[in-house]
Design a protein that fits this description.
This protein has helices at residues 3-26, 44-61, 69-84, 120-123, 128-143, 146-168, 179-182, 187-203, 210-222, 237-254, and strands spanning 28-30, 37-39, 96-100, 108-110, 115-119. By secondary structure, the protein is mainly alpha-helical. It has one domain: 3-Layer(aba) Sandwich (Collagenase (Catalytic Domain)), CATH 3.40.390. A 3-stranded mixed β-sheet has the order 3-5-4, sandwiched between helices. Strands 1-2 form a two-stranded antiparallel ribbon. α1 (3-26) runs antiparallel to α6 (146-168), α5 packs across α8 (187-203) and α5 (128-143) crosses α9 (210-222). The longest helix has 24 residues, at 3-26. It is globular, with a radius of gyration of 21 Å. This is Peptidase family M48. It holds the Pfam family Peptidase_M48.
Amino acid sequence: MRRGSWKIRIFIGLAIVAFAFIQRCNNKEENPYTGRIQNINMSTEQEVAIGLQSAPEVAQQYGGLYPDERLQAFVDQVGNKLVNNSIARETPYKYDFHLLADEQTINAFALPGGPVFVTYALFSQLNEAQLAGVLGHEIGHVIGRHSAERIADSNFWQTISMGASVGADAGGIVNSIGQNTLLTNGREDELESDELGVLFMIQSGYDPYEMIKVMEILKAAAGPNRVPEFQSTHPDPDNRIERIKEAIDRIKGQQ
């Protein structure tokens, strides 16, 4: 490679990296519902569109919807009660609650913009208040804009990687993180959603201590060989229980 060409590649690579950092600074905004400063590079309308587009495919990965309309209606009822009694009702998101047919996988999750899912494997172990805790936690992910934040982080690192690839002429550098990572929540996201879930439970008349029982169910499901916290994207259930207790005391003390 000629020396001049090498200098041009370095300059372009540095320019791309600089652009990524400038864009990241310009994307900072305060979440009006949590007060947290976040890096977001999409509108709420785009979040809703992503959720609506992704929901059918995600549901199919868990066997589709559970075929009992009565139970589907019950999940809707609990979810809508949480929305109508909390700050969630003031958000632009389109909350929609789904009971999935999967009877083996204990899981619940939310997509950007409002779709919330719980598998029958988890649902079947919950009473109404515990279901409210699970759905409230997932509503917290939507309000916290956690998926949008992960997407912005992914786009930032993709741009940084592209700049490094141009500057180093290394085509093997990974410049894509992947869809699973985009929609994976971090430990702080989980803790924030736990606290929001507690708040929504209290506002809706549910016993927030039932959230602790949910953590115990998840802990039992993970078994004795669960991944240590430092290797996991989720906080350890025991640590989450302590934080939930603190949140309950703090929120009740503010009322």
